[in-house]
Backbone:
């Protein structure tokens, strides 16, 4: 079995590689997020291991990518050098399957990998976002407004999910490029503006529909709700039990 690893710490990777190698797993490593995303897109991996440091600013690209993984079955595990409840909550809510504080004893690491592989054979969570009349179904990859379907391309849908799942938060061009294209903004930036323009037009964003997509030159893009501060997002995990998994990890 093959495991893709985005692990920058040499000591952690050597430990993971040696332990899982003895259990029959092959670990392939990437040292940069863009290289990791390109590697994952090639496919053929049974599990993805991602190491996170304590700097929250470094989480955004991978967290956004996790949130946008649609129809992909390989479980994602976040590794951290210390127990970090905030990181665990953010990663699990975005769609990660587990968070492990490293290092783990070899026997426990192997057991955790095998247990997660057994557990993730279940059906993926069916998640829906409902916001000011819009409904976005992650599994069916459909978008509608007031029950009227809106046709989007796969990349437009991924971009819509990224914005609607984080209203009020600026998303950088680097994060958008990494989450959707798997490359940095210097490559994908030429097409990001075009995709944002088309998304605005297809969703008819504006005051009449209660939602706008703002642009800030140095910050990126932000989905904003118009006029009514009481409006909120409803994200339904119909079969995934996201909140339940978060509570279990916190115990």
Residues:
């Amino acid at each position: 079995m093959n495991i893709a690893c985005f692990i920058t710490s040499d000591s952690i990777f050597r430990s993971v590689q040696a332990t899982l190698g003895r259990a029959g797993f092959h670990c392939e490593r990437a040292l940069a997020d863009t290289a990791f995303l390109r590697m994952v897109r090639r496919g053929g991996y049974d599990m993805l291991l991602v190491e996170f440091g304590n700097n929250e600013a470094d989480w955004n690209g991978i967290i956004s990518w996790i949130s946008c993984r649609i129809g992909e079955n390989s479980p994602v595990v976040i590794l951290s050098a210390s127990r970090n409840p905030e990181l665990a909550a953010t990663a699990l809510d975005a769609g990660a399957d587990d968070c492990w504080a490293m290092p783990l004893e070899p026997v426990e690491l192997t057991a955790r990998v095998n247990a997660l592989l057994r557990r993730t054979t279940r059906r993926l969570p069916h998640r829906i976002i409902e916001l000011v009349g819009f409904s976005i179904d992650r599994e069916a990859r459909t978008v509608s407004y007031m029950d009227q379907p809106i046709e989007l391309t796969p990349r437009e849908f991924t971009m819509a999910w990224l914005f609607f799942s984080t209203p009020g938060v600026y998303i950088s061009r680097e994060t958008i490029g990494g989450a959707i294209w798997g490359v940095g903004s210097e490559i994908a930036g030429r097409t990001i503006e075009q995709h944002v323009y088309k998304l605005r037009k297809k969703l008819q964003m504006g005051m009449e529909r209660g939602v706008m997509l703002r642009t800030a030159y140095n910050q990126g893009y932000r989905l904003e709700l118009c006029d009514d501060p009481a409006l909120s997002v409803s994200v339904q995990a119909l079969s995934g039990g996201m909140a339940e998994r978060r509570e279990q990890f916190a115990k």
Observations:
- Residues 228-251 have pLDDT under 50 and may be disordered.
- The two ends are 31 Å apart (CA to CA).
- The chain has two domains: 2-122, 127-235.
- Residues 185-203 form the longest helix (19 residues).
